[in-house]
Amino acid sequence: MLMRLLVKAGYEAAEAANGREALSLQEKNPADLIITDIIMPEMEGIDTIITFKENYPQAKIIAISGGGHIDSGEYLDLADKLGAARTFAKPFSLNQLMLAVRELLGPADCC
How many domains does the structure of the chain reveal? Predict the structure, then answer.
């Protein structure tokens, strides 16, 4: 859903099922912005943020979380401390997310 929203807004976007897949995509076609969920299979969002910040420090990160076994706020606080540029707790406003994308990337080239 987020990928379709970004593409419709004029941004180039790709989708990955987990952090490991996102890192593979980043090696092939670097992205300026990574939107990651915190709870994912294989490589969770916190590990994804750490790895991206170590290997691709220029990439901006938006972290989203609905929680899990602990409150989503704790995950998002950690994501913030690890370098996420923005964090959103689920459910979140798509308008707020798109505002954050525009703030971090600038306006899309086309709409």
Answer: 1
Query: Residue 65: inside a domain, yes or no?
Result: yes
pLDDT at residue 69 tops 60: no
What is the rounded CA–CA span in Å between residue 72 and residue 22? 22
Q: pTM value?
A: 0.90
- pLDDT tens, 22-61? 999 999 999 999 999 998 888 989 999 999 999 999 999 9
* CATH at residue 66: 3.40.50.2300
Residue 81 backbone dihedrals phi, psi, to 5 degrees? -65, -30
| Cα 45 to Cα 78: distance, rounded to the nearest angstrom | 11
Find all residues with CB under 8 Å of 66, minimum gap 6, and list them: 39, 72, 89, 90, 91
Amino acid code (one letter) for 46: I
Q: Which of 52, 62, 70, 71 is nearest to 94 (CA)?
A: 62
